[in-house]
């Protein structure tokens, strides 16, 4: 409800006394008006006496001690007609159009029959809708007074207070001549109000600028007889709220469909959240956290940890663009992710070119964790045999079984982390392993040998950092009971 002397929006000024109405003002920077003529005082008194359901109450004008000129109207704080028209999410059907247009015509008819004679600044932004969905006209009657004050140099119009050129199409052409270089306001006229009413009606019907289409040509005479506005106003069937209540039955028919669509969107968002959470945490841990529970840290008597590292990755980084490196890692790790879904294995993390998985935590699987990791390692080595342009992909894999501690670390970005000597030992098995080999410790190899399903070759004694001399084994393949190679 700002007075469009300034295009910037100002915050509403609320009176301190609760019984007084809320006020909104617009400032025109100018010279202090010392006195008013009798005609001006008569005009302002007539403005104050205007009272209609479709007009915003005019309170008066004043000049503060900083030489700012104020025009005060009652605050209507829902939205303007322009806001509704330009909001693509707000449906404007015939019910809204007829209600809004009827309110505009009622207010306009009252103004034209009053001593004020015309509105003078009939714009969509000056048609305000209150909390009861009653449209009220505001900023009426003052443009003529402003025109005289600016022309008589009582007020000076600064560029930031000029009339916005975006609203020029709303004014009758003959009135635009009075604006000069946009630094003044037209006097306004009843005929000009009707012209502006036509522009508003076009906005209501089509929700676009009346002059937005090109190629318009005159088709002939456009003069029509004068009509009385009263003949155009049909008898009201209650206010807009009453009519909206009657619309409920119509919109209720679509309610189930809308609710179903919203539920589908909500379910899709929940599924995406669950997928992301399950990438960060084991499924059982994620479910407990989603239900508001906590995961206490605990120790496991035995679990198996495996590390997979891409060999010569730094060489690929040096010869490739960053997007190619990321694409390559996404491709190879996606292959690994597909493999571990076939086994009782959990991906702990990926760090650069290193891929870490574990089995037996948090879900204990009755000692099968060694065999799950063994099968997963063989599958990863097999699937990694692909080329990236001239880069031959090779991996080194190492795993070890033993006691381990695990727990959820972090609140905003929780991670399921593993701790203990078993993790360090598995990492050493990988770092001391040649390319395209799978290395494991003696204690782990002996457990695999109990099934006679794996081909293991003793590598020998290896000097391992932090462990000294360690007897290590190669895991070469998985064989069936008839000794045919399974991989």
From TrEMBL:
UniProt KW keywords: Cell membrane, cGMP biosynthesis, Coiled coil, Glycoprotein, Lyase, Membrane, Nucleotide-binding, Signal, Transmembrane, Transmembrane helix
Predominant location category: membrane
Catalysed reactions, as listed in the record: GTP = 3',5'-cyclic GMP + diphosphate
Top-level EC class: lyase
Subcellular location: Cell membrane
GO cellular component: plasma membrane
Keyword hit for Protein biosynthesis: no
EC number: 4.6.1.2
Pfam families: Guanylate_cyc, Pkinase
Coiled coil: 241-279
Database matches in SUPFAM superfamilies: Nucleotide cyclase (SSF55073), Protein kinase-like (PK-like) (SSF56112)
Domain Guanylate cyclase: 304-430
Any one Gene Ontology molecular-function term assigned to this protein's record: ATP binding
Domain of life of the native organism: Eukaryota
Sequence ranges assigned to domain Protein kinase in this UniProt record: 1-266
PANTHER family: GUANYLYL CYCLASE, RECEPTOR-TYPE GUANYLATE CYCLASE GCY-10-RELATED
Protein name according to UniProt: guanylate cyclase
Source organism (scientific name): Angiostrongylus costaricensis (Nematode worm)
